[in-house]
């Protein structure tokens, strides 16, 4: 122990040299194993443990999948929901990462824990061995108790004690006790040579050798017989005499164990120990079956020697044939036992619940029953076999060559071999002799009996038929697992092929009829069905060759881990009723297609529903091929939905309008209108538009790529590959359809016919709206209305070209925009905008709802509500058309009426401003009313002079009367009359303005006002007298006493009906008015500017040019006269 301590030192026992190699430890001359060698001998225990890498991988996959889902869903959330969702995810993920970190830290000590578990298992194994040794010792004790020694030989003992020698013992005792002198090497070699010569003579001349082991060699005093793929046995003869037989020496079985090589130590090729003794005893018994019993044999008392067996006459002993038959059976039984052991080992490795191993009592037949199923529940009606099939391996006699057999054991000798065997027998036995035994031709028979309705599917017979010789026991590779897997593989391929035929040729659906929809993928190891559901979604249907259970899994990427529970649930239900695989795949396909479409819709921020409370009779309007639906609600039109109808072949797209049904207990939506959308036609229109707009260098490439359209061939799995761009365009197209439909309904409510024209024929959007483009705008027909129908009864209908375009806008937008419809009217005659509001551009926007392109003479009317766009257009057109007519008429007045001072000052479709006299102008606009005869608004003004403010236009006082002129009759003549009145009444309003100004300066209480567009009055301060100015034909003016009427009947009625009010009449005649008129005319007679004046009873008639002088003069005289009368009345009353 001191030596060992010095070598080991104070370390923990891990002895290493400087070179890193553990030194050899020798203690008391015995090699002591190192610690590393001892650790390698420890058994490995991995029960209840998993790899750290797998745990990290699954955690990372889950985090990645959740991040991907958040990236797709969070853009559609509000800011508060987005922050809350992200915070919750961070907290949850942090907990998982902390747990994973703790596991990783703990895993640093995993090696120590593993070593401790291995040591524990080793100690438990040692404890089991100790208990077994105790049990063996107890059994030995119990077995030795009844043993007894024989009585002592006292006589012989006394002779030896007294004389020192044996007197009564036989001499042979000495020979037994005293060893003979050992032979020399030369004597041994000579003896072996003689033995070999005797064996060679017997084999060539006497003994019949089976052809199956006719390959032999003689060496070292033994004969080595080799039976290919069976055994190699060594025999030796007892002597050179005729009756000296053969005896067994050794045997080696010629086989190789395949599969798990660890089992080779349990089945050595060379038997040893009790097995070898048993084989030797049995072989020697067969070799000496007909040998005579030795004469000097003294059996123990009570033991009777059996009589020797005698051969029949003409029969020669054939010991080698008997030993061949025995060793052949031993070899094949040994191989069958190995196969049975391998099968039992498979059961211990997880096959126990699904594999049943049976061996017959005579140990010649091994039966393997695979795919064992548990008894079904009592309520299950599906009758599925309890097992998938059986594989039987039997040792049988080879009589025919019709069955597949092992290559090592042919069913019969060939003709050549048979002739050789007969020649051998004749040459060694004679003509009329026959051997005592014949060769038994044994072989392995492998029979596969599959259940043709396994998993509930009826499989054709040819599908489960293997080629001849495919199933055989190969001694060079004894592996029952490979045989079983070959059968299971073939059975799985047959079942999956049947499923493939069922899916591709199903009568109730054509969803998987496309050639590449269902593929059977098979290699040397596994087989599975690759089912293309839709787009890039593929599922794999496989059969677990161990359990016989169907499995469905996804072939998606890292983010597909979230779908694992769904596939697990489907797999569980599928294995309860396997014949419903097609139904499960159809349901999974429908759910997958719906999930993908819903994901695209949510990514675009669209509101979608898988179900709406729509009656079944309404859903039948989608057709019998509809399998599922996805309802996408249009944000701008809540009563309309884009419906993705899922059929067996492709998506079908429908646009519906729903209405809530009254009188229902449950809120139910009824389909009011339904229209189908041809997405290929829509996409082709968009592609053609892009092709037309592309440069010439790109057109050829675009034409070549046109065949590879996003919309694939119907029926192919890729037909459900819904691109986000396609869905966005479909949604926009539906919004456009709804917008156009609403416009059409409005036109129909006004009994206005409309038609659709090609987008190219309708032209593009008006200037200023070019940025409001969509890729589909040229794929949607434009709405065209005849101007004679739409503008019937409106002013300025003759100003519009025959066709009017109505174009809904912003149907491609995600939210409601300011403008939704534009109506374009091209004018026949063009009046260029004038004034400051017109600007320098050819496109002006006089209001937020009107855009005017002067170059194209197109007026565009914008509407904010698609439901009221027609009424809004008519309202705006009523205004614009009147302004257009007014501008046109004013522009023509200078030449047609010779009114040189009438000129257009400003025009912007909303307002027309023109000068009707030098230094006097008026602007005309329309009021905000829809009626065609709605009010006009007139604003009279005068140009500025210098820095002064705008000067006052006296026509402002008559604005209410002037604007009414435009409301009566046609606009053109009314406008002419208005301008004419303005020009003719200008002197009157000017003189009234001067009178008013002078009265204010002199503090005279005088009021001037208009009674109508042609009637003006000067009311004096006593409110009893007034002076009227009336416009007459020919631009003449009548100035008269206001107390008198121009109509006698009205004057008489007035005088009769007039009653004093507070003792006063309403108006009194002006005192001496006729005299005042005469005096005024006499004073002005010398002035030539007064023109022609005609006095009348109550006034005078003069030209409009003279009304200024006459009016002011007459006003002054009347004013002085009224003051004199007032003074006289005051003096008389005093």
Describe the structure.
Residues 695-714 are annotated as: Disordered. It is found in: Nucleus. There is one protein chain. The protein has a seven-stranded antiparallel sheet with strand order 22-23-24-25-28-27-26. Strands 33-34-35-36-38-37 form a six-stranded antiparallel sheet, covered by helices on one side. It has a five-stranded antiparallel sheet with strand order 17-18-19-20-21, covered by helices on one side. It is rod-shaped, with a radius of gyration of 62 Å. 38% of the residues lie in helices and 19% in strands. By secondary structure, the chain is an alpha+beta fold. Mean pLDDT is 81; it is low at 1-22, 400-411, 687-710 and 1056-1065.
Using DSSP, what is the number of strands?
Answer: 38
Beginning-to-end CA distance, first to last residue: 169 Å
Counting helices, strands and paired strands, the structural category is alpha+beta
What spatial form do the alpha-carbon principal axes imply? Answer: rod-shaped
Family: Belongs to the Mediator complex subunit 14 family.
InterPro entries: Med14_N, Mediator_Med14
Subcellular location: Nucleus
Pfam family, one: Med14
């Amino acid at each position: 122990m001191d030596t060992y301590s010095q070598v080991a030192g104070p370390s923990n026992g891990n002895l290493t040299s400087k070179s890193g190699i553990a030194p050899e430890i020798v203690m008391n001359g015995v090699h002591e194993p190192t610690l590393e060698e001892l650790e390698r001998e420890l058994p490995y225990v991995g029960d209840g443990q998993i790899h750290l890498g797998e745990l990290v991988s699954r955690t990372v996959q889950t985090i990645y999948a959740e991040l991907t889902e958040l990236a797709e869903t969070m853009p559609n959330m509000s800011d508060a929901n987005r922050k809350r969702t992200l915070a919750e995810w961070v907290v949850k993920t942090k907990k998982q990462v902390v747990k994973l970190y703790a596991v990783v830290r703990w895993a640093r000590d995993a090696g120590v824990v593993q070593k401790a578990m291995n040591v524990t298992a080793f100690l438990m194994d040692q404890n089991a061995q100790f208990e077994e040794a105790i049990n063996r010792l107890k059994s030995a004790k119990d077995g030795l108790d009844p043993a007894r020694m024989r009585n002592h030989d006292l006589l012989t003992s006394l002779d030896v004690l007294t004389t020192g020698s044996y007197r009564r013992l036989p001499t042979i005792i000495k020979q037994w006790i005293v060893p003979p002198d050992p032979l020399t090497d030369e004597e041994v070699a000579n003896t072996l040579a003689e033995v070999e010569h005797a064996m060679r003579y017997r084999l060539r001349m006497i003994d019949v050798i089976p052809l199956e082991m006719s390959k032999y060699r003689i060496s070292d005093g033994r004969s080595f017989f080799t039976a290919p793929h069976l055994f190699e046995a060594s025999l030796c003869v007892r002597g050179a005499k005729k009756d000296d037989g053969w005896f067994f020496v050794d045997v080696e079985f010629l086989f190789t164990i395949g599969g798990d090589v660890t089992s080779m130590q349990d089945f050595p090729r060379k038997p040893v120990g009790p097995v070898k003794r048993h084989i030797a005893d049995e072989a020697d018994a067969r070799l000496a079956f007909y040998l005579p019993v030795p004469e000097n044999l003294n059996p123990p008392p009570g033991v009777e020697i059996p009589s020797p067996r005698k051969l029949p006459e003409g029969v020669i002993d054939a010991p080698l044939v008997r030993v061949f038959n025995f060793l052949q059976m031993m070899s094949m039984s040994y191989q069958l036992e190995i196969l049975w052991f391998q099968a039992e080992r498979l059961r211990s490795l997880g096959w126990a619940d699904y594999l049943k191993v049976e061996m017959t009592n005579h140990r010649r037949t091994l039966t393997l029953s695979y795919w064992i199923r548990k008894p079904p529940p009592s309520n299950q009606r599906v009758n599925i076999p309890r097992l998938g099939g059986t594989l039987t391996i039997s040792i049988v006699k080879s009589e025919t060559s019709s069955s597949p057999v092992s290559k090592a054991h042919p069913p019969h000798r060939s003709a050549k071999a048979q002739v050789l065997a007969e020649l051998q027998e004749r040459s060694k036995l004679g003509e009329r002799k026959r051997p005592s035994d014949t060769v038994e031709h044994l072989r392995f028979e492998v029979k596969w009996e599959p259940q043709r309705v396994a998993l509930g599917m009826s499989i054709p017979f040819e599908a489960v038929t293997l080629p001849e010789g495919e199933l055989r026991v190969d001694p060079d590779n004894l592996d029952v697992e490979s045989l079983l897997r070959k059968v299971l593989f073939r059975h799985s391929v047959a079942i999956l092929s049947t499923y493939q035929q069922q899916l591709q040729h199903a009568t109730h659906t054509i969803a998987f009829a496309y050639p590449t929809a269902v593929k059977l993928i098979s290699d040397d190891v596994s087989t599975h069905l690759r089912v293309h559901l839709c787009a890039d979604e593929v599922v794999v249907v496989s059969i677990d060759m161990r359990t016989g259970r169907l499995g469905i899994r996804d072939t998606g990427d890292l983010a597909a881990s979230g779908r694992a529970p769904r596939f697990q649930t489907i797999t569980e239900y599928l294995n309860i009723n396997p014949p419903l695989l097609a139904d499960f795949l159809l349901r999974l396909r429908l759910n997958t297609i719906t999930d993908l479409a819903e994901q695209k819709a949510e990514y675009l921020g669209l509101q979608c529903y898988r179900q709406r409370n729509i009656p079944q009779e309404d859903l039948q309007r989608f057709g019998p091929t509809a399998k599922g639906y996805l309802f996408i609600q249009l944000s701008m039109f809540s009563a309309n939905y884009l419906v993705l109808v899922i059929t067996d072949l492709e998506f079908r797209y429908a646009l519906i309008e729903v209405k809530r049904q009254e009188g229902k207990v449950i809120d139910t939506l009824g389909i009011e209108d339904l229209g189908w959308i041809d997405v290929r036609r829509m996409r082709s229109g968009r592609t053609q538009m892009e092709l037309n707009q592309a440069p010439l260098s790109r057109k050829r490439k675009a034409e070549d790529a046109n065949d590879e359209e996003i919309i694939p061939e119907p029926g192919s799995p890729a037909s459900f590959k819904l691109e986000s761009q396609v869905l966005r365009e479909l949604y926009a197209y539906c919004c456009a359809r709804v917008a156009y439909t609403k416009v059409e309904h409005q036109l129909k409510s006004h009994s206005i016919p409309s038609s659709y024209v090609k987008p190219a024929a309708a032209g593009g959007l008006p200037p200023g709206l070019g940025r409001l483009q969509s890729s589909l705008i040229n794929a949607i027909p434009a709405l065209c209305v005849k101007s004679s129908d739409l503008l019937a009864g409106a002013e300025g209908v003759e100003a519009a070209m025959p066709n009017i375009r109505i174009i809904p806008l912003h149907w491609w937008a995600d939210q409601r925009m300011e403008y939704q419809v534009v109506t374009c009217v091209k004018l026949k005659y063009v009046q260029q905008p004038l004034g400051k509001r017109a600007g320098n551009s050819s496109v002006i926007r006089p209001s937020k709802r009107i855009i005017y392109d002067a170059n194209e003479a197109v007026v565009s009317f914008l509407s904010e509500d698609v439901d009221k766009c027609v009424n809004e257009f008519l309202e705006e057109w009523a205004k614009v058309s009147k302004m257009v007519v007014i501008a046109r008429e004013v522009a023509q007045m200078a030449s047609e009426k010779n009114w040189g001072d009438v000129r257009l000052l400003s025009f912007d479709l909303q307002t027309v401003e023109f000068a009707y006299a030098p230094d006097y102008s008026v602007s005309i606009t329309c009021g905000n009313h829809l009626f065609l005869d709605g009010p006009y608004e007139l604003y009279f003004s005068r140009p500025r002079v210098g820095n002064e403010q705008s000067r006052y236009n006296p026509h402002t006082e008559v604005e209410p009367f002037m604007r009414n002129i435009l409301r009566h009759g046609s606009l053109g003549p009314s406008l002419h009359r208005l301008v004419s009145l303005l020009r003719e009444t200008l002197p009157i309003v000017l003189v009234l303005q001067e009178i008013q100004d002078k009265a204010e300066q002199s503090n005279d209480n005088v009021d001037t006002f208009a009674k109508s567009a042609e009637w003006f009055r000067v009311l004096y301060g006593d409110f009893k007298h007034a002076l009227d100015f009336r416009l007459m034909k020919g631009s003449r003016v009548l100035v008269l006493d206001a107390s008198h009427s121009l109509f006698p009947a009205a004057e008489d009625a007035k005088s009769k009906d007039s009653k004093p009010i507070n003792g006063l009449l309403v108006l009194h005649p002006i005192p001496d008015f006729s005299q005042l008129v005469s005096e005024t005319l006499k004073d002005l007679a010398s002035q030539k500017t007064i023109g022609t004046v005609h006095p009348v009873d109550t006034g005078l008639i003069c030209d409009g040019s003279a009304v200024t002088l006459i009016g002011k003069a007459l006003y002054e005289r009347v004013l002085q006269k009224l003051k004199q009368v007032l003074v006289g009345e005051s003096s008389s009353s005093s």
